[in-house]
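Quick start: what a row looks like.
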Amino acid sequence: MKISVRTIAFLFMLSSVPSLTFSQDWDNNKRLSGWLPLQAVPSVTLYSAGTHAFGFEWKVTPLSYSFGINKHVSPWSSFIVIPTYRFAGSVELNVAAQLYTSAIASTHTGVSATLMGYVPLIERGEHLTLNLGLALHRVGGETVVFKAAGISTLFGFVHLNVKQSSHPAIWITSLEFRFF
């Protein structure tokens, strides 16, 4: 199954869904207009399976549950995740589209879904957070299950994650920038 440019565009456009859930007051429109353009900035990724392919990744978070925030605030959020919700301790479902600079199994695109947990380590997660999860990655007509681990720092802005699959032996390393 080839992933078309339309599919990537559709996944990216999914990030505009929060505009449908906000009221039309000035503060929410101002917040959305600052957040949405920053989602076009990709994270960088390196796909290693015998050969290497450098790529770009765009990620959305359709669902997040924070277990580390004040009990008087709803722990659920979607698409726009407040930084403290994530680094104070959370579990998130992320969906991503990848665009690679060289072909992997005759395609330059991929998609993935990740269930990732964020565990605060230093300063309640503001300085260092441990990331652990599972991912499904589809590229070149093949879907592979990955174990994921990494760290987050700088108030949840920078993430370094590594995904590893044993059969077949594949490593995906990504440097992610999360704009809120």
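That is the whole record. The domain at 5-177 is CATH 2.40.160 (Porin). The longest strand covers residues 51-66.
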